[in-house]
Amino acid sequence: MYEAVHARPDGASTVARMARTAADYGYEGIVVRNHGDQRAAFDADEISAATGIDVVAGVEVRADDRSRASGLVGNHRSRSTIVAVHGGSVGINRFAVEQPSVDVLAHPMAGDGDVNHVMAKAAADNGVRLEFSLHDVLHTTGGRRVRTIQSLRKLRELVEHYDAPYVVSADPTSHLELRAPRDLVAVGETIGFDAEQIETGLSEWRRLARRNRDRQSDSFVEPGVRIDDE
Protein backbone atom coordinates (compact mmCIF):
# COMPACT_ATOMS: atom_id res chain seq x y z
CA MET A 1 0.00 0.00 0.00
CA TYR A 2 1.10 3.55 -0.80
CA GLU A 3 0.29 6.94 0.70
CA ALA A 4 0.17 10.21 -1.29
CA VAL A 5 1.86 13.09 0.52
CA HIS A 6 2.61 16.80 0.32
CA ALA A 7 6.26 17.38 1.23
CA ARG A 8 8.34 20.51 1.79
CA PRO A 9 7.88 23.18 0.43
CA ASP A 10 4.23 22.18 0.02
CA GLY A 11 4.26 20.63 3.49
CA ALA A 12 6.21 20.71 6.72
CA SER A 13 8.38 17.60 6.23
CA THR A 14 10.96 16.62 3.64
CA VAL A 15 10.40 13.75 1.24
CA ALA A 16 13.05 11.74 3.07
CA ARG A 17 11.32 12.26 6.43
CA MET A 18 7.99 11.26 4.95
CA ALA A 19 9.54 8.13 3.46
CA ARG A 20 11.17 7.09 6.75
CA THR A 21 7.91 7.45 8.64
CA ALA A 22 5.97 5.66 5.93
CA ALA A 23 8.42 2.77 6.17
CA ASP A 24 7.93 2.63 9.94
CA TYR A 25 4.17 2.45 9.40
CA GLY A 26 4.38 -0.42 6.94
CA TYR A 27 3.85 1.34 3.62
CA GLU A 28 5.61 0.13 0.49
CA GLY A 29 5.77 3.54 -1.13
CA ILE A 30 4.76 7.18 -1.20
CA VAL A 31 3.55 9.42 -4.00
CA VAL A 32 4.90 12.96 -3.69
CA ARG A 33 1.90 14.96 -4.84
CA ASN A 34 3.03 18.55 -4.27
CA HIS A 35 1.07 21.26 -6.03
CA GLY A 36 2.68 22.31 -9.28
CA ASP A 37 3.87 25.65 -7.94
CA GLN A 38 5.42 23.99 -4.87
CA ARG A 39 7.50 21.23 -6.44
CA ALA A 40 9.96 19.41 -4.19
CA ALA A 41 13.57 18.74 -5.15
CA PHE A 42 14.59 15.21 -4.16
CA ASP A 43 16.52 12.18 -5.33
CA ALA A 44 13.95 9.39 -5.42
CA ASP A 45 16.53 6.63 -5.97
CA GLU A 46 18.67 7.79 -3.05
CA ILE A 47 15.69 8.01 -0.68
CA SER A 48 14.38 4.64 -1.83
CA ALA A 49 17.78 3.03 -1.22
CA ALA A 50 17.97 4.50 2.28
CA THR A 51 14.42 3.70 3.38
CA GLY A 52 13.25 0.76 1.28
CA ILE A 53 10.30 2.90 0.20
CA ASP A 54 9.31 3.40 -3.44
CA VAL A 55 9.21 7.17 -4.01
CA VAL A 56 6.90 8.16 -6.86
CA ALA A 57 7.11 11.59 -8.49
CA GLY A 58 3.64 13.03 -8.79
CA VAL A 59 1.98 16.43 -9.02
CA GLU A 60 -1.33 17.94 -7.98
CA VAL A 61 -2.36 20.50 -10.57
CA ARG A 62 -4.11 23.50 -9.06
CA ALA A 63 -6.00 25.95 -11.30
CA ASP A 64 -9.07 28.18 -11.20
CA ASP A 65 -10.41 27.47 -14.67
CA ARG A 66 -10.54 24.66 -17.22
CA SER A 67 -8.22 26.30 -19.73
CA ARG A 68 -5.46 26.83 -17.20
CA ALA A 69 -5.96 23.34 -15.77
CA SER A 70 -5.75 21.78 -19.24
CA GLY A 71 -2.45 23.51 -19.98
CA LEU A 72 -0.93 22.47 -16.68
CA VAL A 73 -2.01 18.84 -17.07
CA GLY A 74 -0.39 18.79 -20.50
CA ASN A 75 2.81 20.32 -19.17
CA HIS A 76 3.14 17.88 -16.28
CA ARG A 77 1.97 14.68 -17.98
CA SER A 78 5.32 13.82 -19.53
CA ARG A 79 7.31 14.82 -16.42
CA SER A 80 5.29 13.24 -13.61
CA THR A 81 4.45 9.61 -13.01
CA ILE A 82 1.10 10.46 -11.44
CA VAL A 83 -0.92 13.55 -12.35
CA ALA A 84 -3.72 14.60 -10.01
CA VAL A 85 -6.01 17.61 -10.24
CA HIS A 86 -6.76 19.66 -7.13
CA GLY A 87 -10.52 19.30 -6.76
CA GLY A 88 -12.98 21.20 -4.64
CA SER A 89 -15.01 23.16 -7.19
CA VAL A 90 -17.70 21.77 -9.44
CA GLY A 91 -16.14 23.19 -12.62
CA ILE A 92 -12.67 21.77 -12.00
CA ASN A 93 -14.13 18.47 -10.82
CA ARG A 94 -16.07 18.18 -14.06
CA PHE A 95 -13.00 19.05 -16.11
CA ALA A 96 -10.84 16.44 -14.37
CA VAL A 97 -13.18 13.47 -14.77
CA GLU A 98 -13.50 14.18 -18.51
CA GLN A 99 -9.72 13.93 -19.11
CA PRO A 100 -8.18 10.47 -19.67
CA SER A 101 -4.77 12.11 -19.14
CA VAL A 102 -5.68 12.81 -15.50
CA ASP A 103 -4.96 9.99 -13.06
CA VAL A 104 -6.68 11.27 -9.92
CA LEU A 105 -9.26 13.90 -8.98
CA ALA A 106 -7.97 14.86 -5.54
CA HIS A 107 -10.39 15.55 -2.66
CA PRO A 108 -13.35 16.31 -4.96
CA MET A 109 -15.76 16.95 -2.08
CA ALA A 110 -13.61 19.60 -0.37
CA GLY A 111 -14.66 23.23 -0.25
CA ASP A 112 -17.52 23.88 -2.65
CA GLY A 113 -16.85 20.68 -4.56
CA ASP A 114 -19.34 17.97 -5.36
CA VAL A 115 -19.68 14.89 -7.53
CA ASN A 116 -22.91 13.85 -9.20
CA HIS A 117 -23.93 10.80 -11.19
CA VAL A 118 -22.80 12.34 -14.49
CA MET A 119 -19.30 13.02 -13.15
CA ALA A 120 -19.04 9.60 -11.52
CA LYS A 121 -19.92 7.94 -14.83
CA ALA A 122 -17.38 10.12 -16.66
CA ALA A 123 -14.70 9.15 -14.14
CA ALA A 124 -15.49 5.48 -14.74
CA ASP A 125 -15.43 5.93 -18.54
CA ASN A 126 -12.14 7.85 -18.54
CA GLY A 127 -10.30 5.93 -15.80
CA VAL A 128 -9.96 8.94 -13.50
CA ARG A 129 -9.59 7.88 -9.87
CA LEU A 130 -11.80 9.73 -7.40
CA GLU A 131 -10.05 10.33 -4.10
CA PHE A 132 -11.54 9.52 -0.73
CA SER A 133 -9.57 12.00 1.35
CA LEU A 134 -9.70 11.22 5.06
CA HIS A 135 -7.80 14.36 6.02
CA ASP A 136 -10.73 16.31 7.42
CA VAL A 137 -12.13 13.25 9.19
CA LEU A 138 -8.82 13.01 11.02
CA HIS A 139 -8.15 16.69 11.64
CA THR A 140 -11.46 18.50 12.10
CA THR A 141 -14.28 18.36 14.63
CA GLY A 142 -17.92 19.26 14.99
CA GLY A 143 -20.04 20.27 12.04
CA ARG A 144 -17.19 20.27 9.55
CA ARG A 145 -16.35 16.67 10.34
CA VAL A 146 -20.01 15.68 10.10
CA ARG A 147 -20.32 17.32 6.66
CA THR A 148 -17.11 15.63 5.52
CA ILE A 149 -18.39 12.21 6.53
CA GLN A 150 -21.71 12.83 4.78
CA SER A 151 -19.95 13.88 1.58
CA LEU A 152 -17.65 10.84 1.67
CA ARG A 153 -20.64 8.55 2.05
CA LYS A 154 -22.32 10.18 -0.93
CA LEU A 155 -19.14 9.75 -2.97
CA ARG A 156 -18.86 6.11 -1.92
CA GLU A 157 -22.41 5.41 -3.11
CA LEU A 158 -21.68 6.96 -6.51
CA VAL A 159 -18.39 5.09 -6.86
CA GLU A 160 -20.08 1.81 -6.02
CA HIS A 161 -23.02 2.44 -8.37
CA TYR A 162 -20.90 3.37 -11.40
CA ASP A 163 -17.91 1.17 -10.54
CA ALA A 164 -15.67 4.22 -10.74
CA PRO A 165 -11.97 3.80 -9.85
CA TYR A 166 -10.76 5.41 -6.64
CA VAL A 167 -7.86 6.02 -4.30
CA VAL A 168 -7.72 6.59 -0.55
CA SER A 169 -5.39 8.95 1.31
CA ALA A 170 -5.02 10.80 4.59
CA ASP A 171 -3.54 13.59 2.41
CA PRO A 172 -0.73 14.31 4.92
CA THR A 173 1.35 17.50 4.79
CA SER A 174 3.71 16.38 7.57
CA HIS A 175 5.20 13.11 8.76
CA LEU A 176 3.19 13.72 11.93
CA GLU A 177 -0.02 13.47 9.88
CA LEU A 178 0.87 10.09 8.40
CA ARG A 179 -1.29 7.24 9.66
CA ALA A 180 -0.61 3.52 9.35
CA PRO A 181 -2.82 1.58 6.93
CA ARG A 182 -4.51 -0.24 9.80
CA ASP A 183 -5.41 3.11 11.35
CA LEU A 184 -6.98 4.33 8.10
CA VAL A 185 -8.90 1.07 7.85
CA ALA A 186 -10.24 1.63 11.36
CA VAL A 187 -11.28 5.20 10.51
CA GLY A 188 -12.91 4.02 7.29
CA GLU A 189 -14.89 1.33 9.06
CA THR A 190 -16.10 3.88 11.60
CA ILE A 191 -17.59 6.09 8.88
CA GLY A 192 -19.17 3.32 6.80
CA PHE A 193 -16.48 1.82 4.57
CA ASP A 194 -15.28 -1.74 4.81
CA ALA A 195 -11.65 -2.72 5.28
CA GLU A 196 -11.27 -4.00 1.72
CA GLN A 197 -12.38 -0.67 0.24
CA ILE A 198 -9.76 1.28 2.19
CA GLU A 199 -7.00 -1.21 1.41
CA THR A 200 -7.95 -1.21 -2.28
CA GLY A 201 -7.82 2.59 -2.38
CA LEU A 202 -4.38 2.69 -0.75
CA SER A 203 -3.08 0.02 -3.12
CA GLU A 204 -4.42 1.84 -6.19
CA TRP A 205 -1.63 4.41 -5.94
CA ARG A 206 0.88 1.57 -6.47
CA ARG A 207 -1.06 0.18 -9.43
CA LEU A 208 -1.17 3.63 -11.02
CA ALA A 209 2.55 4.16 -10.54
CA ARG A 210 3.43 0.81 -12.08
CA ARG A 211 1.10 1.31 -15.05
CA ASN A 212 2.36 4.81 -15.77
CA ARG A 213 6.02 3.90 -15.41
CA ASP A 214 5.47 1.15 -17.92
CA ARG A 215 3.82 3.61 -20.30
CA GLN A 216 6.74 6.02 -19.90
CA SER A 217 9.29 3.35 -20.78
CA ASP A 218 11.05 3.52 -24.15
CA SER A 219 9.59 0.19 -25.27
CA PHE A 220 5.96 1.23 -24.78
CA VAL A 221 3.96 2.19 -27.90
CA GLU A 222 0.36 1.77 -26.77
CA PRO A 223 -1.52 -0.68 -24.54
CA GLY A 224 -0.69 -4.14 -25.83
CA VAL A 225 2.02 -2.90 -28.23
CA ARG A 226 5.71 -2.77 -27.28
CA ILE A 227 9.01 -2.42 -29.13
CA ASP A 228 11.10 -5.58 -29.02
CA ASP A 229 14.79 -4.68 -28.97
CA GLU A 230 15.91 -8.22 -29.71
Write up this protein:
This protein is an alpha/beta fold and 230 residues long. The chain is 46% helix and 17% strand. The chain has helices at 15-24, 44-51, 66-77, 90-97, 117-126, 135-139, 142-162, 181-190, 195-216; strands spanning 2-5, 29-32, 54-61, 82-86, 104-106, 129-133, 166-169, 220-222, 225-226. It has a 7-stranded parallel beta sheet. It has a two-stranded antiparallel ribbon with strand order 8-9. Helix 1 links the parallel strand 1 (2-5) and strand 2.
The global form is globular
Largest sheet: 7 strands, parallel
Strand content: 15-25%
Radius of gyration: 17 Å
Q: How far is the first residue's CA from the last residue's CA?
A: 35 Å
Overall pLDDT level = 94
User: Got a strand count?
Assistant: 9
Note poorly predicted spans: none
Question: Structural class of the helix and strand makeup?
Answer: alpha/beta
Helix content: 40-55%
Largest beta sheet: what is the strand line-up? 1-2-3-4-5-6-7
Q: Which structural traits does this protein have?
A:
230 residues; 17% strand; alpha/beta; 9 strands; 9 helices
Please write out the topology.
Blueprint: E1 2-5, H1 15-24, E2 29-32, H2 44-51, E3 54-61, H3 66-77, E4 82-86, H4 90-97, E5 104-106, H5 117-126, E6 129-133, H6 135-139, H7 142-162, E7 166-169, H8 181-190, H9 195-216, E8 220-222, E9 225-226
Parallel strand pairs: 1-2, 2-3, 3-4, 4-5, 5-6, 6-7
Antiparallel strand pairs: 8-9
Helix pairs in contact: 4-5, 8-9
